[in-house]
Amino acid sequence: MKAYIAIRAEPKEIRPLVQSLAKFPEIREVAAVAGEYDIMAVTKGGTSITNCGDLLINRILKLNGVKETRTFVSLSEKALH
Questions:
Q1: Dihedral, CA atoms, 73, 78, 79, 81, nearest 10 degrees?
Q2: Is residue 10 part of a domain?
Q3: Does residue 11 belong to any structural domain of this protein?
Q4: How far apart are CA 27 and CA 2, in angstroms?
Q5: Domain assignment of residue 37, yes or no
Q6: Quick check: is 77 in a domain?
Q7: Phi and psi of 56, rounded to 5°?
Q8: How far apart are CA 34 and CA 6, in angstroms?
Q9: Cα-flanking dihedrals φ and ψ of residue 41, to 5°?
Q10: Residue 69: which of 32, 37, 29 has the closest Cα?
Q11: Under a CB-based contact definition with an 8 Å cutoff, are residues 14 and 32 in contact?
Q12: Per-residue pLDDT of the chain (81 residues; tens, 9 = 90+)
């Protein structure tokens, strides 16, 4: 399973959170973004729903500066190149 995790964060914590999330082995990609959320993280394919839940509840939501998350689970994907 692959999931996209949108994170709303305290403004002063965005850069430190991106750096912290980049070190998580389950995270394939992370970026500071503009819009309703501040950070978008993408899990590696093959991450189970249980592992994704553990990642969110026990790790991401406990990071300093995280205010809210929203998770989008990929149902299918197709590479465009």
A1: -160
A2: yes
A3: yes
A4: 10
A5: yes
A6: no
A7: -70, -55
A8: 11
A9: -115, 145
A10: 37
A11: yes
A12: 889 999 999 999 999 999 999 999 999 999 999 999 999 999 987 778 888 889 999 999 999 999 999 999 988 877 777
